[in-house]
Amino acid sequence: MNSVIPKLLLQRLGLALASLLVVSAIVFAITSVLPGDAAQEQLGQDATAESLAALRAQLGLDVPAPQRYLHWLGGLLRGDLGTSATTQMPVGDLVGSRLPNSLLLAAVTALFSVPIALALGILSAVWRGSWFDRIASTAAVGVVSVPEFLIATLAVLVFAVKLRWLPALSYVSDVDSVGEVLRAFAMPVLSLCCVIIAQMMRMTRAAVIDQLEAPYIEMVRLKGASPARMVLAHALPNAIGPIANAVALSLSYLLGGVIIVETIFNYPGIAKLMVDGVAQRDMPLVQTCTMIFCAGYLILVTFADVCGILANPRLRHG
To answer: Is the residue at 41 inside a domain?
Structure first.
C-alpha cells in the first residue's frame, strides 16, 4: 500500500475530530441563546424572581456560559452526558432508551433504499437517454422537489385515513409479529425512502456516467468487452469512491428527515426526544441529541472520504 494512504486517512480522521469540536461549541452557543430556560418552563410564567433564581442556581444555569461549556465538554469526553433539566434523570438513560429505535429505523430505511437506488442509478447510466432513464430521472427530480413532511402527511391521508391499511402512529413497543412490525415501519420507512432513493439514484447515475465517458472505457470497448463486463469489471470499481460519497451524503439526509418523520408518526426515537427537549427547554438533552446527529453526519462523510481514498488506483499503486 502506498505510504501516502495512511497519512491521508489520519488527516481525514483528525479533520473529523476537529470539526466535531467546532460543532460542539456552535451547538452549545446556539442552545444557550434560545429564549427561555428550563427553570422558566418548569415554574411557569407566574413564578417569582426569587424562585426562578433558586431553581436556576440548582440547575447550574447561573454559571457563566464558557464555564458551562467546558464542564459540558469534559463530561462528553468522559462519557457523562449530564442530567436532564426537566426530569432530573441522566441524559444517557433517556438517550439510551430511544437511540436503538432511531438506529433501527435508519437501518431498515438503508436496507431498502440503498440497493434500489444503486440499481436504478446504474441502470439509468447504462441505458442513458432511453425511456427508462427519462422516466427514472424525471421521477427522481419530482420526488426530490417534494419535502418529506408532505410525503409523510400524504401517506397518512392515503394509507391511514382513506384506505385504513396502516396505522397513523408508529408504536414499535407493541408489536408481536412480523406483520405488525411491517405495519409499524411501513409509513416512516416509505416517507424516508422516497427522497433518499431519488437523491442517491441521481448521484450514482452521475458517478457511473462520468466513468463511462472516461478514455479507458473507450479502450475497453475497442477490445471487444461486453457491456456487462465493461460496466461491472471496469467502470464500477473506479466509481466506488463517488458512489460511496453518494450513499453517505444521501444517508446523512436521514439525520434531518428522521426528525420530521418521527414527529409526524410519533415514533419513539431520539429525534422525537430532541423535539420534546426543545419544547421543554431541556438544554442538556437537546445538546446531547444534537451532538449525536452531528457525529453521525461526520462519521458518514468521513467513511465516504476513506472509501474514496482506498478506491483511488493512483494512491494504491503510487
So the answer is: no
In a domain, 188, yes or no: yes
Write the secondary structure of 124-192 as one string of H (helix), E (strand) and C (coil).
HHHCCCCHHHHHHHHHHHHHHCCCHHHHHHHHHHHHHHHCCCCCCCCCHHHCCCHHHHHHHHHHHHHHH
Instruction: Please state the domain count of the chain.
Output: 1
* Residues whose CB falls within 8 Å of the CB of residue 277, separated by 6 or more in sequence, listed in order: 84, 86, 283, 285, 286, 289
Angle at 290 between CA 171 and CA 10, to 5 degrees: 120
pTM score, two decimals?
Answer: 0.79
Q: What span, in angstroms and rounded, lies between the C-alpha atoms of 270 and 264? A: 14
Residue 50 lies in a domain: no
Running along the chain, 318 residues long, what does each successive block of 10 average in pLDDT?
74 88 88 67 65 69 78 83 80 87 85 90 88 90 82 84 78 63 80 86 88 82 78 79 80 76 82 83 84 86 79 63
Residue whose C-alpha is closest to residue 116's, from 187, 197, 208: 197
CA-closest candidate to residue 155, choices 182, 195, 191? 191
Residue pair 270/292 in contact by the 8 Å Cβ criterion = yes
Indicate the DSSP class of residue 235.
Answer: I
∠ CA(203), CA(208), CA(213), 5° rounding?
A: 125
In a domain, 59, yes or no: no
**Host domain of residue 192:** 4-34+81-316
| DSSP code at position 232 | I
Q: Please name every residue paired with 90 in a beta bridge, in sequence order, or none if there are none.
A: 83
